[in-house]
Amino acid sequence: KITASKDIRQAFLSYFEQKGHKVVPSSSLVPADDPSLLFTNAGMVQFKQVFLGEEKRDYKRAATCQKCVRAGGKHNDLENVGYTARHHTFFEMLGNFSFGDYFKEGAIRYAWDFLTNIIGLPKEKLWITVFEDDDEARELWHKVAGVPKDRIVGLGEKDNFWAMGDTGPCGPCSEILIDQGEEVGCGSPDCRVGCDCDRFLELWNLVFMQFFRDESGELHPLPRPSIDTGMGLERIAAVCQGKLNNFDSDLFEGIIRAIEDLSNQKYGRSPEIDVAMRVIADHGRASAFLIADGVIPSNEGRGFVLRRIIRRAARYGRTLGLSEPFMARVCDRVVEEMKDAYPELVSAKSSMRQILDTEEERFLKTLDFGLEILMEELDTLRKKGEGIIPGSFAFKLYDTYGFPIDIVQDVAKEQGFEIDREGFERELEAQRKRSKGASKEVVTKELPPKYQELVEQGRGGEFIGYETLEAKATLL
Ligand code: ATP
Ligand code: MG
Ligand code: MG
Ligand code: MG
Hints:
By secondary structure, the protein is α/β, with parallel strands linked by helices. Helices cover 45% and strands 16% of the residues. Strands 1, 2, 3, 4, 5, 6, 7, 8 and 9 form a nine-stranded mixed β-sheet that branches. It has a two-stranded parallel sheet with strand order 10-11.
């Protein structure tokens, strides 16, 4: 039986290779030639031009294990990390792709065969969602995979219709979920497939790219429909290992052990410590992989997301009683754990150390003072019987002490407060207008020479836009 994450990764790629797929390496977390996208957030990103028909490859089927980051931009899971059992900022997405070759039936057959026969998941615990109008998919799941009709659930556009952008290829999707049992759920009497809690854990998304949406919003059938799928390795690994939380899988074991050693604390004894350890483990992986792909902390774009990730981890370090920079040591462990699958981590190790130490040292100078002021403010609010942190105060913390909003959000959550986020955004926008034209912070000169070279070669990539206006707001 396959249980170790490295065996699952391997089994997935071999399975699809045997089924005529070309195994393609993961692309960088910094999307090539796509300055509008913050990070690679799914397996299909490196194949975008192929799906659009603008690029031809000498294969029609591909399989990958793709590095993904979902922090900032359209898909932002940063604030979920630590609190749900299934979200990371950095994760690995297993995917198989058909470029105008097999379609719904093939995709369903492969996914079901892989999960039930290769991995050996219990069929009776698996649920299927389809787009509510997609009778074809509903029929196929029943016919091809033998899933009983009452475990095939139709959901609306928000959950089960996928689009590359406002125009372009799009289509219904279908997901495979595993029921982890009532104990895992939110406890609401309305908890069912589609609920946002961890009970019906979404494992695999199969996207049936079959339409082209034109400027007027009209859907036209694609002459050669395609398949794009994605399954999170951390989720399937946890399930295979009988764990109800991704962070309890073997992918995180060594990293959490390292954090235990660093902090002299134990994992699994108090929720507060566990959340901190999970966040640090996750953010350690994200930092290591982002730096290895040429991202450096800065005040905008990709670098700002990395800065937020490092600072959020640094604040959780305080929860564990860590008072010195520690992320470099967490990343050392990440490199050890992941270097077989991702050898690029090894050559980035010394840059990682220098970048993280510099970044943390700089932030630690203001962190304690900022936290003190935040706690005083919460005291005052509490005495006044108020439960909302004013946006202007959150902005002051950002502006004076370099607190990204997620840190204030985390503390607010712990202390039972909410934040006036709109007020915060308003202040931020006003400041942006004031400082327009002011010089940008230059950080490259502090970099180790080898790393500077990397950035100069353009590996760090330049981020010039946002996918949507909404994305722009959530990035802050
Ligand atoms: P969820 O509803 O759980 O947030 P999603 O619908 O946003 O997931 P998709 O965009 O369909 O996820 O991505 C395909 C697969 O990638 C998911 O089915 C899941 O296995 C995995 N995945 C998505 N987001 C994350 C994440 N933040 N961390 C780990 N795995 C993820
Ligand atoms: Mg999601
Ligand atoms: Mg989902
Ligand atoms: Mg999904």
